[in-house]
Amino acid sequence: MDRFTVQTLAKLNELGNEQLRRGEWEGAAATFAKMLQLDDHPVLRNNLATAFYNGGKPAEAWRVLEPELNKGVLSPFAWALASMIARDLGRSSEARAYLRRAITMFETGAQNPRNLGFEPEAWREYTVIIKRAAGHLDDHRLVIDLHQRWERFYQTPEDLFQVGVAFFNLHYLEEAAEVWSQVKDLGWGFLEAYITVAELVDQGVIPGFPLPYTAPDLLTGAKPAPEKIEQALSHGGNRTLFLASLFKPDLSAKLAQETVSLLVRLGEWGIAFGKSILVSRVVPKEWKFAAGRALLDLGVLKPGEPVPMIVDGRETEVTFSKQELGPASPEEKEVLEEVQSLLKSGRCEEARDLLVEKHRAGGLSLEGFQLLAKAHGALGEREHALAIVRLFIELGEDGNAWAYLVAAELYLYLGERELASQYLTRVAYQELSPGARESYARLREYLGDAERRE
Fold first, then answer.
1. N or C, which end of the chain is more exposed by having fewer CB within 10 Å?
2. Residues of the chain below pLDDT 70
3. Does pTM top 0.85 for this prediction?
4. Are 289 and 387 in contact (CB under 8 A)?
């Protein structure tokens, strides 16, 4: 091989390895394909197959790797990679055979790698991909067995990351958290999120799910489309980061509700997650209503169907409904006048039942919800009243100034004066109608007088 070719290969090899490290799979594939034209070497085939495989092209990866496998290549890496590729191509029995060959080859060579032309450090690195291949076959107990057999060979935190994943997938959650805690400060900071989620699953707050043996890789840059986010969250590691961020105390209420809604939409696990949120004793009420609405959108819950829920530590039932919210029609205004009369005369239960019936029929206006909250409050059904207040707060967050005013009025009605003052300050006065401005002025004056009296 001439000097120019050697120099070209060296430059391309440096570029290709850097592209692999950065996850630039297409670029890495192009680089190693150029190298393979200059030098058909097993290591280059391994790297090109890796780039194709990680880029979601297992058939192309197999095409590159197969010639070396047919020659019985002396490379535990190649046989472990072949196992993962075969698994993805639906050839599970072959995948297990390739994995067994990788394990035997590694253990035989580990006795004296230099006799095979390998440095011991380089040979030991094969533990990572072999255990990853075992995990790819969902053989988590084999991962733990290999971890215990090969502990003397370990050189990187990834070995402990992998056995933690195996423990998690077998529901040995305390063991998973303990192992990850040993390496989270060694450049694997994302494992703090893994530990948090392991504890949440162990406590029964959220349902478990399978973790892959690869590190998470969440989308970055410009805000991706919802379908891209859902695709990213199909990776258990990415889902773990999302869940851990949800349970951070500094996450805004609005973003938390959006996150809950998104997670509920992740297939069967998402539905189980939503149901667990409804009956959890440790999550905020706002999350429960976000989960309920998402389950309603998915058709898991039926409109008007009583749903068991734990609110403020007490078991209760809540109904959800799908309907467009808007002002009262002339016909409904007559009904609302009757409701107001019932409330004034103390017949709050009749008023509530009349409004609930209309709500279940899908025809309750914003004014109707306002009166329904008061009826619930008068009857001591505080959680139902507060659920309606949150509905108005969400409308306020979407830019409806009047909704914030209603939320403030309802909080005052329910005896929450500080919250009433807080939401009154959010009202964009200039956007209110003349009638709403009068209500705003009365409420502001009342709250001011009450504060001065103190």
1. C
2. 1, 218-226, 321-328, 362, 449-454
3. no
4. yes
Structural domains of the chain ordered from first start: 3-167 (1.25.40.10), 249-318 (no CATH), 330-453 (1.25.40.10)
Cβ–Cβ < 8 Å for 147, 166: yes
State the amino acid at position 411 in one-letter form: Y
The reported pLDDT for the residue numbered 221 is 47
Q: What is the pLDDT of residue 320?
A: 75
CB 19 within 8 A of CB 28: yes
pLDDT digits (tens, 9 = 90+) for 355-373: 888 777 767 788 888 899 9
Within 8 A by CB and 6+ apart from 305, the residues are: 319, 320
* Tokens 């690195």 -> residue: 125
Render 6-72 in DSSP notation, one character per residue.
Answer: HHHHHHHHHHHHHHHHHT-HHHHHHHHHHHHHH---HHHHHHHHHHHHHTT-HHHHHHHHHHHHHTT
CB-CB neighbours of 361 under 10 Å: 12
Closest CA to 48 of 38, 118, 107, 72: 38
Q: Are 267 and 231 in contact (CB under 8 A)?
A: no
Tokens of 104: 């035997």
Taking the C-alpha atoms of residue 131 and residue 154, their distance in angstroms, rounded to an integer, is 12
pLDDT for the residue 291: 93
Return the amino acid letter for 40: D
Do the Cβ atoms of 359 and 368 come closer than 8 Å? yes
Q: Which of 390, 334, 401, 411 shows the shortest CA–CA distance to 365?
A: 334
DSSP structure string for 352-375: HHHHHHHHHTT---HHHHHHHHHH
pLDDT at position 399, please?
Answer: 81
**Cβ-contact 417, 447 below 8 angstroms:** yes
Q: For 177-222, give the DSSP string.
A: HHHHHTTTTTT-TTHHHHHHHHHHHHTTSS---PPPSS------SS
Task: Give the distance, in angstroms, between the CA of residue 7 and the centroid of all CA atoms in the same chain.
Answer: 46
157 within 8 A of 127, measured Cβ to Cβ? no
Sequence-separated contacts (24+) of 5-12 with Cβ below 8 Å: 5/38, 5/39, 8/38, 9/35, 9/38, 9/39
d(CA 129, CA 289): 43
Residue appearing with tokens 């809540």: 318
Coil, strand or helix at 309: strand
Which pLDDT belongs to residue 362? Answer: 64
In this structure, are strands 307-311 and 314-318 parallel, antiparallel, or unpaired?
antiparallel
